[in-house]
Amino acid sequence: MSRNLPNQITLARLGVAVVFFVLLTQYHAADPEPNRTLLGVCFWLFVVAGLTDIVDGHLARKYKAESSFGRILDPVVDKVLVCGAFVFLIGPGFVGADGTSVTGIAPWMVVLILGRELLVTSLRGVAESQGKAFGANAVGKLKMLCQSVAAGWVMATEAFPDQGFGHPFWVRGQSVMIAVAVGVTALSIFVYVHRAVGALREASRA
User: Is the pTM value of this prediction over 0.85?
Assistant: First the structure.
């Protein structure tokens, strides 16, 4: 297997993310008949992009094809995709005819998500500059999973109301999943700050 295949898959995911964002700009929930087919395509692009994240990581580990470029690029693409999705979901395209958001996502939630990524990236840079490894841990991976599920859930309930996702279970579950994603994001901030402080203290004593 080519050593570059996992990186090529990651780059392909970035391309899918670009198409995903371009299509999302064409969706307008306030239209008399919103183009739910278009949003459905966006949903499946989001799912495909998420699956490629699993595939490239699996291939890199299985065939020992991990690289410095891949370790940097992969989390960046993940953040672009998921954070970008949340930014669009609070944008004008998801404001209904009554002037309220159809997603249930508040702007402060997106600020928290983006702020967390900026903070952790900064902490990682400082820790690794001191020679301390600062890769993703279980909480960070859980955070990404919850955010991805929440964003996909929101798109599904809006895109497929006539295919079962308009059922109260899915509608109420959407709010619960958003709350879980925000809660885990907040928790991960404290976990990573504590971890960074510990790593820097060790570095200062060394």
Answer: yes
Secondary structure of residue 183 in the 3-state scheme: helix
For 110-167, the pLDDT digits (tens) are: 999 999 999 988 887 787 777 776 667 789 889 999 999 999 999 999 999 988 888 8
For helices 138-159 and 68-89, angle between their N-to-C axes, nearest 10 degrees: 40
Q: What pLDDT shows up at residue 106?
A: 95
Query: CA nearest 201: which of 111, 127, 109?
Result: 127
Question: What's the alpha-carbon Rg for the chain, to the nearest Å?
Answer: 19
Choose the CATH number for 5-205 among 1.10.287.180, 3.40.640.10, 1.20.120.1760, 3.30.470.30: 1.20.120.1760
Question: pLDDT at position 206, please?
Answer: 63
Closest CA to 42 of 22, 71, 70: 22
